[in-house]
Each structure stands twice: as structure tokens, then as C-alpha cells.
Amino acid sequence: xxxxxxxxxxxxxxxxxxxxxxxxxxxxxxxxxxxxxxxxxxxxxxxxxxxxxxxxxxxxxxxxxxxxxxxxxxxxxxxxxxxxxxxxxxxxxxxxxxxxxxxxxxxxxxxxxxxxxxxxxxxxxxxxxxxxxxxx
Length: 136
What we know:
Layout: E1 4-9, E2 12-17, E3 32-38, E4 41-51, E5 54-65, H1 74-88, E6 93-99, H2 103-111, E7 115-121, E8 128-135
Parallel strand pairs: 5-6
Antiparallel strand pairs: 1-2, 2-3, 3-4, 4-5, 6-8, 7-8
């Protein structure tokens, strides 16, 4: 299945699309970028990657809301949409990390019922990170 769906988003209809095929019963076969657009304007994007060894979980990474759409409620709506998308694709759990210094992301994730299950310091970058999970 190729996802190219119009969805209700911030009181308008936008398109969520990917060019990668998605297997209905086994989830994603490789990392897949989903783009959220309002007409020709890209609002943001995220990448879902299969969780190694578990077809019931998916990793959410590289979520970006473009600067002109920030602080307008788009991030909150986009995170809710990602959870719905993961559920639609047959997953039970979303997994992600965030930099703990990114307070808007940490606060937003908490409000969206992400559970911080572990904090750690990335030895490669020195960043303090939070490992988060969300039931979908």
C-alpha cells in the first residue's frame, strides 16, 4: 500500500504521503519518510523505521516541523497524527528519543502521553537524551 491520504489537520485538509511501499501485515520493510503538506507547502516530516526484531514497534525519528509552522499548534497535531498513522500501520508502540535540552519537545511529548522510560548521555555527542515510548 502507498500512503497518500488527505487528513484533517488544524481545521484544514492536508496530504500525508510516502513513496515507499508499506506491507499491510508486516509493517514497514525499511525506514520510510512521511511528508505532511498543505498544497505545495511542506509543513513537516517524520521518519518511521522498523524496530529490529519486533514487528509490533516502530521507531519515530527525524520529526521536523518547518520553522514558519512552529508555535502554532502544528507540532501537537503532528504528534497525534503520527500515533494514528502507527496504529493504522498495525503497530502497538512508538519509540523515540529527544534531547532533554529541547524543552518544547519534552513538554509536548509529556502532554501527548509519551512515557520517558530512560534518560542517558550520548557518548558520541555529549547530549542528554530521553528515551520515550507511546502506546498506539
